[in-house]
Amino acid sequence: MFGIAAVLALGFAVAYFTIDFDETFLGWSAQNFALGATFGGSLLLIGIGIIQWAKKIMQDHEMVELRHPAKSSDDDRTAVLADLNAGIKESQIGRRPLIRNSLLGAVGMLAIPGVVLLRDLGPLPHGQAHTVWKKGMRVVNDISGLPIRPADLEVGQLVNAEPAVFFPAEGEDEAEIHGHELLAAKSKAAVIVVRMRPDDITPDAEKANWGIDGILCYSKICTHVGCPISLWEQQTHHLLCPCHQSTFDLADNGKVIFGPAHRPLPQLPLGLDSEGYIIAMSDFLDIVAPSYPELARDQKKLDEENNRGGA
């Protein structure tokens, strides 16, 4: 049993790297099924093996211990050590190297699934400053995939949007990314497009031409812990996060005015293409991600890259 448990623990790692994430088995995720069966089977066999060892090899006798003060006396400590040594002797662990070594091997092999699962904790958020947005990419409705013109938006309106790359037109090649990578890219590139009266907007000097007649575009990802946000108060120009109530003023460069978030919402610079559709003029110049300790370092690196590009 211990030997099979060790093989199953190794099988966990094999299944993790060889079974495709999207494969199914009897309607279930094939990878999840294999991981659960191998890891669970390994733990089960180790437990059954230890029980069988205790029942069939170790001696079975009752022990009676009288009540005593919480602090053990020296005699009690000596007695405990004597009992421990007697238990070791009765288990015959020294005389049963096959059972002993196979148990140690099986328990040691359980470290493999733990190490493999550490891969699912990454990649870490720092170093992932860029999204799929790039200059000239159209902003499209995230449901219909239709491109947006300024005339399609009324003052006070909010539209959830995505980059056009996720909605290839008829005759165009499909997106190069698929599966969970596609979902991750779509969630990171998600934006909201709002229209306000131009006189209500107070942009920073470097963002003066980032809008189109009161139309602005911001990331949909809250800078606190990454929740998607679209609770729009058109009268105050405030955007609220439903998770922890962080509030951003979209008329004032996405500035945080309430809640636990510490960074403004990243803004996407906008322009128009030759057909009058709204397009991005570049990727986000700020990191799209929840806050984390490494953010200041990576934001500085991103700013340096942007400054070199502008030069």
Topology summary:
Layout (H helix, E strand, L loop, with lengths): L1 H17 L5 E2 L2 E2 H27 L17 H18 L5 H13 L1 H7 L21 E3 L16 E6 L15 H11 L1 E5 L19 E5 L11 E3 L4 E3 L6 E3 L5 E4 L11 E3 L5 E3 L14 H16 L1
Antiparallel strand pairs: 1-2, 3-4, 4-5, 5-6, 7-8, 8-9, 9-10, 11-12
Tell me about this structure.
- The chain is α+β, with helices and mostly antiparallel strands.
- It has two domains: 2-61 and 69-121, no CATH class; 139-310, Rieske [2Fe-2S] iron-sulphur domain (Rieske Iron-sulfur Protein, 3-layer Sandwich), CATH 2.102.10.10.
- It is 35% helix and 14% strand.
- The protein contains seven helices and twelve strands.
- The protein has helices spanning 2-18, 30-56, 74-91, 97-109, 111-117, 179-189, 295-310; strands at residues 24-25, 28-29, 139-141, 158-163, 191-195, 215-219, 231-233, 238-240, 247-249, 255-258, 270-272, 278-280.
- The strands form four sheets. A four-stranded antiparallel beta sheet has the order 3-4-5-6.
- Strand 7 and strand 8 (238-240) form a beta hairpin.
- Helix 1 runs antiparallel to helix 2, helix 1 packs parallel to helix 4 (97-109) and helix 1 (2-18) packs parallel to helix 5.
- The termini are far apart.
- The model has no long low-confidence stretch (mean pLDDT 85).
- Its cofactor is [2Fe-2S] cluster.
- Residues 188-279 form the Rieske domain.
